[in-house]
Amino acid sequence: MSYGMSVARYENAGAVYPEPERRGTQHATPPRTQERTQTSRADVCAEADALLALAREAGMLVTLDGQIGREKYQSVAGSVASLQRFAAALRDMFGEQAAA
Question: Distance between CA 40 and CA 18 in Å, rounded?
Fold first, then answer.
């Protein structure tokens, strides 16, 4: 099964948004089980928490803007210097992972 992208134009907003277009009747991959979805959600949450901790350590402000169900909406703000520290810490982290 192949997937293509079609583009829908919304004249009121003047924006262009991609919309998925399905061809065929079979799913390309088997449907996700609940266990697989929960594992990947946990991985994503752990990764996001690690990035936010790294941002805090670099001196950036992390605020919780809101939460709907399990979904958290957070903002990160800081100076250019704190952004540079965050980028350096991220670079170091990826360098350690590549060496391992």
Answer: 25
pLDDT > 90 in the chain, percent:
41
* Interatomic CA distance for residues 52 and 55, integer angstroms: 5
Q: What is the C-alpha R_g of the chain?
A: 20
Burial status of residue 78 (CB atoms within 10 A of its CB: 0-12, 13-18, 19 or more) = middle
Residue 56, judged by CB atoms within 10 A of its CB (0-12, 13-18, 19+), counts as middle
Is the separation of the CB atoms in 76 and 61 below 8 Å?
Answer: yes
pLDDT value at 68 more than 80: yes
DSSP 16: E
Q: What is the mean pLDDT of residues 77-96?
A: 94
Q: How far apart are CA 38 and CA 61, in angstroms?
A: 29
Give the tokens for residue 36. Answer: 């697989």
